[in-house]
Write a structure and sequence with these properties.
Layout: H1 5-15, E1 48-51, H2 53-63, H3 65-84, E2 97-106, E3 112-131, H4 132-200, H5 206-241, E4 248-251, H6 268-278, H7 280-301, E5 307-317, E6 327-335, H8 342-407, H9 413-447
Parallel strand pairs: 1-4
Antiparallel strand pairs: 2-3, 3-5, 5-6
């Protein structure tokens, strides 16, 4: 029974890897799974299992570690923002306290006398603190930092999608390189068969047979190298998806096709506007700038705002607790923090605002460079594709003619071998142009914000 790529990959995800004895973290079993996959078979090491790009993106949405780390940081920042909101809420600190004194004490007149006393303090005893400076400035700053962390998580998820697309494209390229190498080996094997037959008939040379045999050995070595590259590409995708390292993956699609994610005739200003509007990094930079401005306002106005404190306690004196009405204490205070560090703190806050503005401008420049370079690489790859297609067609015709002439005795073996090598190079160049076009399209889509995060 042949399972679908999705079922196979879900089985791979659920299979996991053994955890070392004593380890505190199960690297495969403890992460969330995108779907449950009951009754899926275990995957055998050494077998290749097909995967398509949507499945890879789906798995990355649940398994990509960099994105998961960024999401956890966003959750932590949101928790800090919630904690900062509590500045306007009273902090209640109930307590239970027992005090006993046996020995001498001194009166205000200077005389000493022996005492034996004790007191018990018990709830309701509470202290309430209201810090208006933190409430009005620190809480909004934390809220904006939480937004920046959330934007960083969104950026990490989009980066994960790009990493998956690039790793999957590399896997497709490695598969097609195997096909090119095997085609070269088939031509080399046919040439060796022809030269062996000509030698048996007395019309060929032993040197031509040896040369054809050496050419076949070189072609077979190319097949071995291409298959090794396929295993390396599979390992890279397995790492990105955080699957069991024993799993071997292969592309489910039979042929590599061009993927035009962003029309190359789109005007550059429109692409830049899309990048500025869609990239989470822009939102994160704006949030960090707003947080720095809120902190700066806190250094200017915060010291002028008071901190209110209120506490109350009820004590019982004597050997027995009594009814805790022996003593009632109430305290209220209004405080300000005015010290010599106010002016340096204000200067530091001004510098942080300027830093955030420079960082925002630098980010816009970097995104613009990504868009321009991605667009230029995609256009260059498309032009290269046209030339590569023409070269492949010409090389195929040259090999056909050289092979026909050799079979008729009108051409030398070296002409056939050169034609075979030229066709292999042409096919490889066309494959590289196709891969570069798809990679540049993925990077361009990522740059303009059109490559969304993997589904979770």
């Amino acid at each position: 029974m042949r399972l679908s790529p999705l079922a196979l990959l879900l089985a791979a995800a659920c299979a996991g890897a053994p955890v070392r004895e004593g380890a505190d973290f199960a690297p495969y079993a403890s992460l969330p799974r995108p779907l449950s996959a009951p009754e899926t078979p275990s995957l055998e090491p050494g077998e290749e299992y097909p995967i398509d790009l949507p499945t890879a993106l789906r798995l990355a949405g649940a398994h990509h570690l960099a994105a998961a780390i960024a999401r956890e940081r966003a959750d932590a920042a949101a928790a800090r923002a919630d904690a900062a909101k509590a500045a306007f809420l009273p902090a209640l600190r109930p307590r239970v306290e027992f005090f006993r004194h046996e020995g001498r004490v001194q009166e205000t007149s200077g005389d000493f006398f022996d005492v034996d006393k004790q007191s018990t303090t018990i709830g309701p005893a509470a202290e309430i603190t209201l810090d208006f400076g933190d409430a009005l400035f620190e809480a909004p700053a934390e809220k904006r930092r939480a937004r920046a962390a959330l934007a960083a998580a969104g950026s990490a998820e989009r980066d994960a999608a790009l990493e998956v697309v690039e790793a999957y494209t590399a896997l497709q390229g490695a598969r097609d390189r195997i096909g090119i190498a095997e085609a070269f080996a088939a031509h080399a094997r046919a040439a060796l068969d022809l030269e062996t037959s000509r030698q048996r008939q007395g019309t060929g040379l032993e040197a031509d047979v040896a040369r054809a045999r050496a050419n076949l050995a070189e072609a077979e070595q190319g097949v071995v190298e291409a298959r090794s590259e396929m295993r390396l590409a599979s390992a890279a995708l397995v790492r990105v998806l955080h699957l069991d390292p024993a799993v071997s993956l292969g592309p489910a699609e039979e042929e590599l096709s061009l993927e035009e994610r962003v029309p190359l005739d789109t005007p550059l200003p429109a692409l830049l506007e899309s990048a500025y509007a869609s990239r989470p990094e822009i939102a994160g930079a704006r949030a960090r700038l707003a947080a720095a401005e809120a902190e700066r306002e806190g250094t200017r106005i915060g010291p002028l705002l008071p901190r209110l404190r209120f506490d109350a306690s009820y004590d019982a004196f004597g050997p027995n607790p009594g009814d805790f009405k022996d003593r009632e204490i109430y305290r209220a205070a209004v405080e300000w923090d005015l010290d010599a560090a106010l002016f340096p703190a204000r200067d530091e806050a001004d510098a942080r605002v300027r830093e955030a503005k420079y960082a925002f401008a630098s980010l816009r420049d970097r995104l613009a460079e990504e868009v321009v370079s991605g667009l230029e690489r995609a256009r260059a790859a498309r032009e290269r594709l046209g030339a590569a297609d023409a070269r492949v067609a010409a090389s195929e015709e040259a090999l056909r003619l050289a092979d026909a002439r050799r079979r008729g005795g009108a051409a030398l073996l070296i002409e056939v071998l050169d034609a075979q090598a030229a066709l292999t190079r042409a096919r490889t160049d066309r494959l590289e142009a196709t891969l570069e076009f798809n990679r540049s399209q993925a990077r361009l889509a990522h740059a303009v914000g059109a490559l969304g995060p993997p589904p979770r």
